[in-house]
Specification:
This protein is mostly helical and about 100 residues long. The chain is built from 3 helices and no strands.
Length: about 100
């Protein structure tokens, strides 16, 4: 019986020592330190890249009234090219479907 009491007391002392060693500090200075570490973790990283020149307005060559070298409306040309690519992709898909025996 004495051995059992000794084991329980020794375990309680060991657990108390581990808990006291690993507890968080409760002083005002430690709270301030934790707060400062949190601020540093959230602070943005300063940019050290190359200096960017003054901002300029939008490029006058780009926009709804932009014209290509041949005088055509740039937006319409680009829109038509995109439509052509979409149609070509749809035609390829139809050919694959027909080759596989599916009909659309």
């Amino acid at each position: 019986m004495a051995f059992l009491v000794f084991a329980v007391v020794a375990s309680a002392v060991g657990i108390a020592a581990v808990l006291m060693h690993n507890r968080r500090p409760t002083t005002m200075q430690s709270s301030i330190g934790n707060f400062e570490r949190g601020l540093r973790a959230l602070a943005p990283v300063p940019e050290t890249g190359p200096e960017i020149g003054p901002e300029v307005g939008p490029d006058p060559e780009v926009g709804p009234d932009a014209r290509g070298e041949d005088g055509r409306d740039v937006e319409r040309v680009v829109d038509r090219e995109i439509e052509d690519e979409i149609e070509a992709g749809a035609a390829d898909a139809r050919q694959r479907d027909q080759g596989a025996g599916r009909t659309g």
